[in-house]
Write a structure and sequence with these properties.
By secondary structure, this protein is α/β, with parallel strands linked by helices. It is built from eleven helices and eleven strands. The strands form two sheets. It has a six-stranded mixed beta sheet with strand order 2-1-3-10-4-11, with helices on both faces. Strand 1, helix 2 and strand 2 form a beta-alpha-beta unit.
Length: 325
């Protein structure tokens, strides 16, 4: 996947010419009450953890609380629909993902919102690969070991899928290798990891953020990363693309959006606040520790990036016949 040309340097340049953190004109008082941030995933999942950290920084800058509203379900569609239907007044935001704002429109037969038309982009927060990991007791140490185990015994290594992106990783592995992998969907990382640690399932695909404490404890072991090249977020783990599946790459991302119709001055204030948070060296290190490559940039850059993502993944998903319902 082409990495977005949106980096902290771009964020810094944007900040140099951006308006202040607070809106001007009719929205000069913005914000004058708490802001709700819809997270379409369960508490404790990677997107939720990163959102809470960024929300705390923006709250200090904007002078109002950013309150997280977790609404998991339907691969992120449930919470994203709620955000899309909210008033465009700057007091409801959502942390979108590559699933909610790119993949789901191709994976589901009916999505109750238009990811492009129903939202105003604010800014890209961060990118990250997915990690294929196994229970510490599993008798395989690589992707090839996993695929061989499944070929010998088709239900010997069922895979926990706590997100739409995890589902895409599993489906692409099946499409590229012909292996009879059986994916089990979960609403969030917590329940999925409980079953993997308990031995009900052998394998999980999840974010570096969600997997980090379990990898550190040795309760699970990483056997592959979905970036095309080795990632500093999971040192020492070979990419799936380097384990005999050439060209395999799936990169996830998080981005802040507002409902359509949110005033431009409010979007500018939120973008400036987000970029200010991302430009801090301590924020960059914290996000790296959480499992995210910090991004940043303008609303226009995010819109262009998301359009490019749709052009890339839409045809691939449709050609492979991958469905989530």
């Amino acid at each position: 996947m082409r990495k977005p040309a949106i980096v902290l340097a771009a964020a810094a340049c944007f900040l140099a010419g951006a308006p202040g953190a607070h809106a001007q004109g009719p929205q000069a008082a913005y914000p004058d009450k708490p802001i709700r941030v819809v997270v379409a995933y369960a508490a404790g999942q990677g997107t939720d953890i990163a959102t809470r950290y960024i929300a705390d920084l923006m709250a200090k800058d904007l002078g109002q609380a950013l309150v997280i509203d977790n609404r998991p379900g339907a691969g992120g569609n449930l919470g994203t629909e709620a955000a899309a239907r909210a008033p465009g007044d700057g007091y409801t935001l959502t942390m979108g993902t590559n699933a909610t704002h790119v993949l789901n429109q191709f994976l589901y037969s009916k999505v109750p919102f238009d990811a492009e038309k129903d939202f105003e982009p604010i800014g890209l927060v961060g990118t990250f690969p997915m990690v294929l990991a196994a229970n510490a007791g599993a008798h395989f140490a690589s992707v090839n070991d996993l695929l061989e185990a499944v070929r010998r015994n088709p239900r010997s290594a069922d895979v926990a899928m706590p997100s739409t992106t995890a589902r895409l990783v599993v489906e692409l592995l099946k499409e590229r290798t012909g292996a009879a992998l059986f994916g089990v969907p979960y609403k969030g990382s917590g329940n999925a990891m409980t079953d993997v640690l308990g031995g009900q399932l052998s394998v999980i695909v999840d974010t570096p953020t969600a997997l980090r404490p379990h990898l550190a404890s040795g309760k699970v072991k990483a056997i592959g990363v979905t970036s095309a090249r080795p990632s500093g977020l999971v040192p020492g783990v070979k990419p799936i693309a380097e384990q005999g599946i050439d060209g395999f790459e799936v990169i996830a991302w998080n981005a802040l959006y507002a409902p359509k119709g949110t005033p431009a001055a409010v979007i500018a204030a939120l973008n400036a606040s987000l970029n200010k948070a991302l430009a801090r060296p301590e924020t960059r290190q914290k996000l790296l520790d959480l499992g995210f490559e910090p991004a940043g940039g303008s609303p226009a850059q995010l819109a262009e990036f998301a359009r490019a993502e749709r052009k890339k993944w839409g045809p691939l998903i449709q050609a492979a016949g991958i469905r989530a319902d």
